[in-house]
Amino acid sequence: MTRRRGSLVDAPEAEQLVKAMVHEEADALRHIVREIAQRYPGSDDLELLGYLLGLVVRLTRDPSALDRG
Hints:
Elements: H1 11-39, H2 44-61, H3 65-68
């Protein structure tokens, strides 16, 4: 078994990379959900999903946004 010498990126860089990836994917999903909700209006589930994805997008862009409401 080989031993690892260290990580390729440090913890803060890895955290930023993950946040950027989650932000991108959540934003893309939010746009898809909005488009589906426009085509098929009246779904509370889609509205909730769009809202939650919007929160994820907002928080991955600016984590202090949660404190501001």
